[in-house]
Amino acid sequence: MPDGQDLPSVGRPRNRTVDRALLDAAARLIAQRGYGALSLQAVADEAATTRPALYRRYADRAELVVAVLIDRYGLHPGSADLGGIEAELFAIQRHQMELFTDEVLGNALPGLLDDLSRNEALAASFYERFLRPRRRSTASILDRAVARGEIAPGIDPEWICDLITGPMLMRALLPAVGPIDERLVRLTVRSALDAVGFSGRD
């Protein structure tokens, strides 16, 4: 459909139907063709809208892909209080297992990382928009565990984020290393619990 309803006008909200169509179109094209073959024109065509409508929302391919990831996986995966650090770490690692086995991320990741490595401003934007909020959400798991008396204060949350995400990222980039599966979830959770000094497991 044409983007006639999305013409800029003072006080009018952005057309959410077009927003949805663009995100869905980008996800489909990444899954089908990969990040390297993704173009903004192809996304506009797939969404049945116009290129100007897309550029009003996203400056480049990487920004669009970040929006797709936020849409699919959110920014606060560790925010739910499940009553204990172990349950919450298992929940976030199963969330990450879903993230890192998603064909959209799998097809986007190598090209996206290449773009980020070549553009410092883009890398900083990716960190601020996507990674930092998710890492803060993960850190909230430690804050709740300290409040419950499950672990001592002073644990570096950045290290715990690296500890649980690093193996997932490695296997997403190099599948020959091993699968991203429930066993990896268990191993990473066990490592994180050991790292924070949690001894409350049965």
* Number of discrete helical segments: 9
Low-confidence runs: 1-12
Largest sheet: none
Gyration radius over CA: 19 Å
Helix content: 55-70%
- Name of the CATH architecture of the largest domain: Orthogonal Bundle
Name of the CATH first level of the largest domain: Mainly Alpha
Q: End-to-end span in angstroms? A: 58 Å
- What is the averaged pLDDT score? 90
Shape: elongated
Strand content range: under 5%
Sketch the topology as an H/E string, one letter per element: HHHHHHHHH
**Total number of distinct structural domains:** 2
Summing up helix and strand content along with how strands pair, one would put the structural category as mainly alpha
Q: Give the CATH H-level superfamily of the largest domain.
A: Tetracycline Repressor, domain 2
What is the fold named in CATH at topology level of the largest domain?
Answer: Tetracycline Repressor, domain 2
- Please provide the count of β strands: 0
Describe the structure concisely.
The chain is mainly alpha-helical.
